[in-house]
């Protein structure tokens, strides 16, 4: 597994405001959207392309376009929905799937309660979006399902990561074609499995605490 921490002043600036507890939900959603687009730019450096001939107003030339099958973007519900627009803005021709996952607050194990994506992902590049890589359980479960469906190149895009979650992914997904792209790897997890210093519960900060 590869992990890429995006070192860019605009990324650091937006992340600082996301961390601030005074940042309200509308501002949090907007900044998360902007930050995801910056992360997606780095995450898609190896997106697969094919050559195509075109005619410019001056002459014929050769360019590139995204190859088929098209990339698949998979947000993990619910907080991952807040990252979807930032991804498809950069990859407008990508297809979109969904995975609904919930974490058992006693065992911290993740369970899938809903999926909406192709059964066969053979030859597909998949971009999983989830704001927080904390314990790693949710992303490990999600990526395993994608690989079982045939995905041969999976990139997880997270706003923040904890070293404990990174270690779990490296252990559980050893040898798998997985890359993690994040704005920062923070200090640690606390006793409640929240990232420290972190930014709190990303879903609640995006959408409130309803439900």
UniProtKB/TrEMBL annotation:
UniProt binding sites for 5-phospho-alpha-D-ribose 1-diphosphate: 78, 103, 130-138, 201
Pathway annotation: Pyrimidine metabolism; UMP biosynthesis via salvage pathway; UMP from uracil: step 1/1
Keywords (A to Z) from UniProt: Allosteric enzyme, Glycosyltransferase, GTP-binding, Magnesium, Nucleotide-binding, Transferase
GO molecular function term, any single one: uracil phosphoribosyltransferase activity
Protein name: Uracil phosphoribosyltransferase
Catalysed reactions listed for this entry: UMP + diphosphate = 5-phospho-alpha-D-ribose 1-diphosphate + uracil
Family, per entry: Belongs to the UPRTase family.
Pfam family, one: UPRTase
Organism: Streptomyces mooreae
Enzyme class: transferase
EC numbers for this chain: 2.4.2.9
Domain Phosphoribosyltransferase: 5-209
Cofactor(s), by name: Mg(2+)
Chain's role: Catalyzes the conversion of uracil and 5-phospho-alpha-D-ribose 1-diphosphate (PRPP) to UMP and diphosphate.
Residues given in the record as uracil binding sites: 195, 200-202
